[in-house]
Amino acid sequence: MGFRMTATDHNIYEELVAPYAIDALGEEETSLMEEHLASCDNCANEVASFHEALAEVAPTAQVDKHDTLWAKIESQIAPKSVDETGGSIVDISTRRRGSIWLRPSSAVAAIALVVAFISTATAIGMNSSKASFVKNNAAMESQILANAIASPGSKMLHLTSASNKYSLDIVITKDGKAYITGGDLPPLNGQKSYQVWGIRGNGMVSIMVFGSHIKGVSFSLPSDAGFAQIAVTQEPMGGSPAPTSTPIVSSVY
Amino acid sequence: MARITPIPNANKEIAQLANLDDKELVDEVSNRNQNALAEVYRRTGAILVATAAKVTKSQQLAEEVVQEVIVKLWNEPEKFDSTRGSLKAFLLVQTHRRAIDLVRSEVARTKRQEKVASFKENESTRFEDMVVDQVQMRSILIALANLTEAERMAIELAYFHGYTYTEVAKILREPDGTIKSRIRTGLRKIKETLEREKSRDGVQDDSH
């Protein structure tokens, strides 16, 4: 250490305010500085003002690439949520009501149930009990996505529109299960569905059709299918045997 | 911008949360509103990840750091005091400290010491030549602040590379006091420029 602090001279601390603000002190100086800051408003205020300035010049990243990070954060905070019916903090592992959650034997089945349930619940209007149930299902959905993202050999596919206005993120596990983790697509107009296509050779192969709830939608996307690109179009509800519109988003596969 | 999927039937809609100030937003986090935390992430995630990645030189470590910091806010929202600064600055400090801790861990420490020593031995190598592609803070604000190259380098070596000011002094072959002074002068220039710009913006806003 280039400097040993034994005195309580304010000037000495003052010199260290800036290095402290950027975490450039050694351990000993840091703890001495923190003791000083607890009793010196002037220095504490200067540290705070340096932190504000640093926040203004901090670099920035493309958040789009970190939607998977939010999925991980969400999965960590999801297990404990507010039970709207009782107001207490509960663990969702004890909140699985009824036998419906005992039947699914795979993550894919669970997601399908979640999507189906959320759609139904939205259509009939949610009472508080159902809303709580849906919230917990959403937590499980996030957990499944986080597991897929964290599974060895999984990869992310980021589909975008030409202008980058729209996007769709898909995680594909090593064994070819694909899950939509999030995205931003234009609203479905009238009687429409989204349709995922695999592009290979001279043709487009329909992979699956989905509706306006996109997160958690699952499908099969084997790595040996030979697709060069993946694209999503809007098609008549239920899908079309061949695309009738240009892709909204696409990505090299 | 990332689309953060809202939690059904949350206490407040995303659109409402976007209009909350820092204190109101963290109050919502205290109420266990997951959408509020999503809004925190939306507002700050980009700079937190970027800063952590600059420090750790690893996207994976950076994301782990940010995940830890955001989850910590969820678990301990009372640690944020809006009277002491913005939420962005608060989370950035947490993120930077955690990233620095990783960089200064035992394994990394040995490598760093070797690196510092190599600068001393190799007299023909200018550090500036080795960091030519590591321009980090070329924002408009930095340009306006008119930092000297020596001030910018002292700050960046410490802030983004995790060196203490005494290590920076060794790398740049300058006295400790010179480096402390450069860091302080540089930060004060940035701070004063920021205050000046805010004040000017305030005047412009008032005139509308």
Short description:
With 253 residues, chain A is of the alpha+beta class. Helix content of chain A is 36%, strand content 23%.
Walk me through the structure.
The complex is a heterodimer of chains A (253) and B (208). With 253 residues, chain A is of the alpha+beta class. Chain A is 36% helix and 23% strand. Chain A folds into three domains: 10-57, no CATH class; 63-150, no CATH class; 155-252, Immunoglobulin-like, CATH 2.60.40. Chain A has helices at 10-21, 27-37, 41-57, 67-77, 107-124, 128-150; strands at residues 80-82, 89-91, 155-160, 167-172, 177-184, 192-200, 203-210, 218-220, 229-236, 249-252. Chain B folds into two domains: 14-102, Rna Polymerase Sigma Factor, Chain: A; 114-207, Arc Repressor Mutant, subunit A (Orthogonal Bundle), CATH 1.10.10. In chain B, helix 3 packs antiparallel against helix 4 (59-75), helix 6 runs parallel beside helix 10 and helix 9 packs across helix 11. The longest helix of chain B is centred in the C-terminal third of the chain and has 32 residues, at 176-207. Classes of the chains: A alpha+beta (253), B mainly alpha (208).
Over the alpha carbons, how many angstroms does the gyration radius of chain B reach?
20 Å
Gyration radius of chain A, in Å: 26 Å
Low-confidence stretches of chain B: 1-12, 121-138
Note the gap between the termini of chain B.
Answer: 29 Å
Q: What is the CATH first-level class name of the largest domain in chain B? A: Mainly Alpha
The domain tally of chain B reads 2
Structural class of chain B: mainly alpha
The helix count of chain B comes to: 11
Sheet with the most strands of chain B?
none
Strand order, largest beta sheet of chain A? 3-4-5-8
Strand count of chain A: 10
Straight-line distance between termini of chain A: 53 Å
Quantity of strands of chain B, as a count? 0
CATH superfamily of the largest domain in chain B: Winged helix-like DNA-binding domain superfamily/Winged helix DNA-binding domain
> Any idea what the CATH architecture of the largest domain in chain B is?
Orthogonal Bundle
Most extensive interface: pair and counts?
A: A-B, 60 and 67 residues
Principal-axes shape call of chain B: globular
List the secondary-structure elements of chain A in sequence, H or E.
HHHHEEHHEEEEEEEE
How many helices of chain A? The count is 6
